[in-house]
Amino acid sequence: MSEAIPSTPAAAGTPQSPAPAIPATPQAAPAPSRRNALSSDVEIKGSISFNSDLYFDGKLEGDVTSSGSLTLGDNAFVDGEILTESVVIRGVVKGNVTVEDRCELRGEAELIGDLKACRLVMEENATLVGKSEVTPIKKKTAESESSSGSGGGFARPFEAVRRAISGN
Hints:
The protein contains two helices and 18 strands. By secondary structure, the protein is mostly beta strands. It has one domain. The chain has a six-stranded parallel β-sheet, with no helix packed on it. Strands 2-5-8-11-14-17 form a six-stranded parallel β-sheet, with no helix packed on it. The longest helix is centred in the last third of the chain and has 12 residues. It is globular and about 35 Å long. The chain starts with 34 loop residues before the first strand and ends with a helix.
């Protein structure tokens, strides 16, 4: 049973504003961004760990460990190891980089250390001084992984990283 809402004429000289529309179905609020940022005026002595994405444009003396992705800006300087899902480097890294997926050396990036990744993108003015091991992960069945005992290269180190970050 529906009820009609009576309309009343507005008094002379009084503006009538339309009633706000109420959506028939509730709208979910947009999911909050899971990207963190530390600007160029940030200096950290110590290690950083995070679960989602981080944009870092400051100075770090320490290691970075994450199951997410790291983006280093043009002003970034990292003196330490990087172990993440993926990384985009535009600044300077002095230390080894191990990524589960993709490493990008953009602009005038400098990586002085060894690199281990599944994929590498390197622009013309970027510099890599060190060894690089770029090996796409081949899909294996659980049976072949357990029988070989090798764990498929990247899988086991990142399982430990994920457990350390999540606290499990």
